């Protein structure tokens, strides 16, 4: 049986222990958490990166009635490309336009989710050689039904120069795979640029897709690491994420082609929005910045100074007073108060590279000089040998099989108790065991997380990777949250993270197995207080990696007798018939923790633990 000694608390678990890692991979942000419906809103994504130079925009009408080309006429200096739409047909004369007009449409990220009763904010920039009457509509996937429509009527004097137009479209019908169309039946030339469509209703009103942000908020993350991953590094430095290019008015952002995960991002979800998201989730931001190193090229330590200044500017943007140079830019964007940025990571997975140590030290010294309170995370693994440079924390990444990860429950047992703490900033079961998110993967992860909880004196933070996948563009398997334009569900790995969310800031209690304990059974216990009910609980978690079921008898010692209300205790089990089972859009809750009634209302201390399962039990304390 399992004994929990509630009288000998071990330590308070860091309030940051379990958090999230957001990377722009799998269209996690563009076409995902960022609620922008238009893909390639500035017509900038073309060139060698996409099949057409305005992809995924396309024409409505044939070559005799409309011609779409791009030119460099935009009024935005950092993204000069605009769409030039020449309409040959007219509502009068011999070349009559077809009913509904001709023009251009954008299907978003493989379909826009337009929902009856919801309102959408459409913004675009327009210029023309004459007057215009432009219809703006959301249309059904077959193009036959108008879901929401409005129009812009403007005289030539009004739009002979670039002019911003805004509309609110309210949907009268639903289609999950809709498009946005801009059409006219009037001969002439219209230029369009920076076309955006956002649902009016977003998470905290800051542009995040509500259902996805709520799934993240539900994890009560202790931190958010962003924006990558390899996304930060780039295959080549020229394609790395640059904070400076991702701030300011969205129309002026150049966007960039992420060459590691191979897609364009308009960078509507930029550095400012990540900081805002952290604030909206009431969590701690961790900014991973490019340190002059990509997968292919590197800036030498003797020439890294401009990159360092750029990062210092980025820190001033986040934390400086609103009258500082970069703090003022933040204030203009709507956030006069500094953001609570206290952690940065210098690069991602770059430790072994030629200039890492040299570049790292230069970034480290400069940041500590101006921001001594900022905690700095190194890419070098300090779990088995000391780091060669100063650091507050070190990254530890692990992607492996389920049995390996489960057995790594002891990974940090022998790590030195002095020196920088571990940030397990990426962990997951991958490969055959994982499929697209199996129960088996979640079991391996549960065993590993139990070990991290026990070693939370040397492990300060941990996050699963990747967080999101849009099923229309899977670049990595498995992931925690799966979605398309309108549906979403958590994989079993997501649900395992749910079981650990109350551990942040809780008290770790010692557990010991008595008798013949299986090496495939690991457990931990915490004492935690519900912020909602203010009740205190002991939570016992156990992961059974074995193919046999067992009986578990839980005894709690060290508390005055009668202080545990066994009758009100709750038991839940995460399991399935087959270890390779997965959740899906059709069965999103096939594998989730299921409450199990306990015999004799919980007064029986012993209960069956199924094979291949994770159990958790909450026992209220008076
Ligand atoms: O999580 C996916 C990728 O795995 C990350 O971008 C990278 O850091 C790691 O190699």
TrEMBL record:
Its EC number is 3.2.1.55. One of its GO terms (molecular function) is alpha-L-arabinofuranosidase activity. It catalyses: Hydrolysis of terminal non-reducing alpha-L-arabinofuranoside residues in alpha-L-arabinosides. InterPro entries: Alpha-L-AF_C, ASD1_cat, GH, Glyco_hydro_b, Glycosyl_Hydrolase_51. Gene3D superfamilies: Galactose-binding domain-like, Glycosidases, Golgi alpha-mannosidase II. One of its GO terms (biological process) is L-arabinose metabolic process. It comes from the Eukaryota. Residues 425-613 form the Alpha-L-arabinofuranosidase C-terminal domain. It holds the Pfam family ASD1_dom. Belongs to the glycosyl hydrolase 51 family. PANTHER family: ALPHA-L-ARABINOFURANOSIDASE 1. This is non-reducing end alpha-L-arabinofuranosidase.
């Amino acid at each position: 049986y399992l004994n929990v000694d509630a009288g000998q608390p071990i330590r308070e678990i860091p309030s940051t222990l379990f958090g999230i890692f957001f990377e722009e991979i799998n269209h996690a942000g563009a076409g995902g958490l960022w609620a922008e419906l238009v893909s390639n809103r500035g017509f900038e994504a073309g060139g060698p990166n996409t099949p057409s130079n305005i992809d995924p925009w396309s024409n409505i009408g044939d070559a005799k009635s409309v011609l779409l080309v791009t030119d460099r006429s935009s009024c935005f200096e950092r993204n000069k490309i605009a769409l030039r739409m020449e309409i040959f047909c007219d509502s009068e004369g011999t070349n009559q336009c077809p009913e509904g007009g001709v023009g251009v449409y954008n299907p978003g990220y493989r379909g826009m989710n337009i929902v009856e009763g919801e309102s959408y904010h459409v913004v675009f920039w327009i210029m023309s050689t004459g007057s215009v009457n432009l219809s703006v509509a959301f249309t059904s996937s077959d193009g036959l039904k108008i879901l929401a429509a409005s129009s812009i009527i403007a005289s030539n004097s009004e739009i002979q120069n670039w002019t911003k137009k805004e509309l609110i479209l309210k949907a009268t019908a639903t289609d999950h795979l809709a498009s946005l169309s801009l059409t006219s039946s009037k001969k002439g030339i219209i230029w369009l640029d920076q076309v955006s469509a956002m649902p009016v209703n977003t998470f905290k009103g800051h542009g995040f897709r509500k259902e996805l942000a709520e799934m993240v908020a539900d994890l009560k993350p202790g931190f958010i690491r962003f924006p990558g991953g390899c996304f930060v590094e780039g295959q080549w430095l020229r394609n790395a994420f640059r904070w400076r290019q991702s701030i300011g008015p969205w129309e002026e952002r150049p966007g960039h082609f992420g060459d590691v995960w191979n897609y364009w991002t308009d960078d509507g979800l930029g550095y400012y929005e990540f900081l805002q998201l952290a604030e909206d989730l009431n969590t701690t931001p961790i900014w991973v910045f490019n340190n002059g190193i990509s997968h292919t090229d590197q800036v030498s330590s003797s020439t890294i100074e401009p990159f360092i200044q750029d990062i210092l500017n980025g820190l001033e943007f986040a934390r400086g007073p609103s009258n500082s140079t970069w703090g003022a830019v933040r204030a203009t964007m709507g956030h006069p108060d500094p953001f609570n940025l206290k952690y940065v990571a210098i690069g991602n997975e770059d430790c072994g590279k030629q200039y890492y140590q040299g570049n790292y030290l230069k970034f480290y010294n400069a940041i500590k000089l101006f921001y001594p309170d900022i905690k700095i995370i190194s890419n070098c693994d300090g779990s088995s040998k000391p780091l060669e440079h100063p650091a507050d924390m070190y990254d530890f990444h692990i992607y492996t099989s389920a049995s390996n990860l489960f057995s790594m429950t002891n990974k940090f047992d022998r790590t030195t108790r002095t020196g920088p703490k571990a940030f397990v900033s990426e962990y997951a079961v991958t490969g055959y065991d994982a499929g697209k998110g199996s129960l088996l993967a979640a079991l391996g992860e549960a065993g590993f997380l139990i070990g991290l909880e026990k070693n939370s004196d040397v492990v300060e933070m941990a996050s699963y990777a990747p967080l999101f996948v849009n099923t229309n563009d899977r670049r990595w398997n498995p992931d925690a949250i799966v979605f398309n334009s309108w549906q979403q569900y958590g994989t079993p790995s997501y649900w395992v993270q749910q079981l650990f969310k109350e551990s942040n800031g809780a008290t770790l209690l010692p557990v010991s197995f008595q008798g013949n304990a299986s090496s495939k059974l690991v457990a931990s216990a915490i004492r935690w207080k519900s912020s909602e009910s203010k009740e205190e609980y002991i939570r016992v978690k156990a992961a059974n990696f074995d193919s046999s079921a067992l009986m578990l008898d839980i005894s709690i010692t060290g508390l005055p007798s009668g202080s545990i209300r066994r009758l009100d205790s709750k038991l839940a089990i995460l399991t399935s018939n087959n270890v390779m089972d997965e959740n899906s859009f059709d069965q999103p809750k096939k594998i989730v923790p299921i409450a199990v009634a306990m015999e004799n209302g919980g007064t029986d201390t012993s209960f069956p633990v199924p094979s291949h399962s994770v159990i958790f039990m909450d026992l209220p304390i008076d």
